[in-house]
């Protein structure tokens, strides 16, 4: 008889709201999206910020003086330990410009950030970008979210 043992992955999520709008996803939505993108156990904080905080963090940690949609701060990769920072005005603007529901774009950014926490890097070359985008599509389709690209 073959015995297969599986270790259940643990998942811990903290959500922080540095800004508020009615269009923010609920904690259960955030949890489902982030957990679906976690290949291993994870301890993650997701923080929603305004443009000022987003710009400050992007400038301080990436040397880029503008607010971006999502920043990922990985501390460990197995288990995954890290922070995601989503700049709400940027995510909402991009959703409008791309004619997407806000929830779908928030889901994409959370999945995208979670993959970064696990070592995926779309800036490491075309092959890595394709690998990451395919993984994002694979996860998002489970939630009925269309190809974000």
From TrEMBL:
EC number: 3.1.-.-
Single Gene Ontology MF annotation: RNA endonuclease activity
Name this polypeptide is given: Endoribonuclease YbeY
Function: Single strand-specific metallo-endoribonuclease involved in late-stage 70S ribosome quality control and in maturation of the 3' terminus of the 16S rRNA.
Subcellular location, record wording: Cytoplasm
Gene3D superfamilies reported for this sequence: Metalloproteases ('zincins'), catalytic domain
Note on cofactor: Binds 1 zinc ion.
A GO biological-process term: rRNA processing
Cofactor entry: Zn(2+)
Encoding gene per record: ybeY
Record key words, sorted: Cytoplasm, Endonuclease, Hydrolase, Metal-binding, Nuclease, Ribosome biogenesis, rRNA processing, Zinc
């Amino acid at each position: 008889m073959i015995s297969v043992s599986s270790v259940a992955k643990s998942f811990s999520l903290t959500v922080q709201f540095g800004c508020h709008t009615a269009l923010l996803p609920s904690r259960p939505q955030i949890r489902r999206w982030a957990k679906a993108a976690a290949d291993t156990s994870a301890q993650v904080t997701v923080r929603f910020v305004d443009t000022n905080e987003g710009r400050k963090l992007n400038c301080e940690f990436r040397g880029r003086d503008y607010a971006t949609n999502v920043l990922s701060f990985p501390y460990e990769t197995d288990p995954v330990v890290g922070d995601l920072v989503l700049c709400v005005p940027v995510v909402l603007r991009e959703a409008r410009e791309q004619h997407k529901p806000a929830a779908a774009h928030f889901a994409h950014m959370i999945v995208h950030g979670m993959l970064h926490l696990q070592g995926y890097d779309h800036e490491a070359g075309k092959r890595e970008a394709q690998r990451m985008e395919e993984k994002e599509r694979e996860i998002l389709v489970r939630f009925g979210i269309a190809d974000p690209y």
